[in-house]
Amino acid sequence: MTISDRVRIKDVRVLSDGWTPLKNTTFDYRRANGEWQTQHRETYERDNAAAVLPYNRARRSVILVRQFRLPAFIRGYDDLLIEAAAGVLDDALPEVRIRAEAEEETGYRLHDVHKVFEAFMSPGAVTEKLHFFVAEYEPEMRVSDGGGLEHEGEDIEVLELGIDEALAMIANGRIIDAKAIMLLQYAALHIFR
């Protein structure tokens, strides 16, 4: 029996269709004991996205970005968030989109991006799946100041940090973005060993 055999969608209502749709779904779910149970869930229908950690092995450095994030602020985080560069796929292949996003946000034109894993970041409520990449960078690959796209409301600061400093910033709570944490831990295990 597949999961599809255990789910019957009964009703889907759009609650909001602003920046991205918020839907309420009523469905029947067949529990492990065979009984059917009616459930209701709200889902935030986010498109898939990609994130990248540019690294320089010789310099033992990484590129991260710092920007304002309203949801973090609403939750009480009174600082700019330090993150891995990331963006929505917009119907492009993850490898193509992450190169463009990295250049927009960091100013670096990355050549070879390597996919390391995929993950649902909040599968209880958000449909988005992220594609995670790493890419080696050299100083001469910087083609602009980065900073993101002003018409999209982006006001991004580019950070070049030593890997040890970045990992310490996870431990002391200065880096709390899950994308950055996951990619930095990947880099610590597989790149900067």
Automatic annotation (TrEMBL):
Essential cofactor(s): Mg(2+)
Q: Which residues cross the membrane?
A: none
List, alphabetically, the Gene3D superfamilies matched.
Answer: Nucleoside Triphosphate Pyrophosphohydrolase
In this chain, Mg(2+) is annotated as bound at: 86, 101, 105, 154
Where the record annotates domain Nudix hydrolase, the positions are 45-183
Q: Which GO terms describe its cellular component?
A: cytosol
Q: Which GO terms describe its molecular function?
A: hydrolase activity, acting on acid anhydrides, in phosphorus-containing anhydrides; metal ion binding
Judging by the UniProt lineage, the source's domain of life is Bacteria
Query: Catalytic activity, per the record?
Result: GDP-alpha-D-mannose + H2O = alpha-D-mannose 1-phosphate + GMP + 2 H(+)
Which intervals of this chain are the motif Nudix box? 87-108
**What keywords does the record list, in alphabetical order?**
Hydrolase, Magnesium, Metal-binding
Per the UniProt entry, what is one GO biological process?
Answer: nucleoside phosphate metabolic process
Description of how the protein assembles with itself and partners: Homodimer.
Similarity section: Belongs to the Nudix hydrolase family. NudK subfamily.
Q: What is this protein called?
A: GDP-mannose pyrophosphatase
Organism this protein belongs to:
Bradyrhizobium cytisi
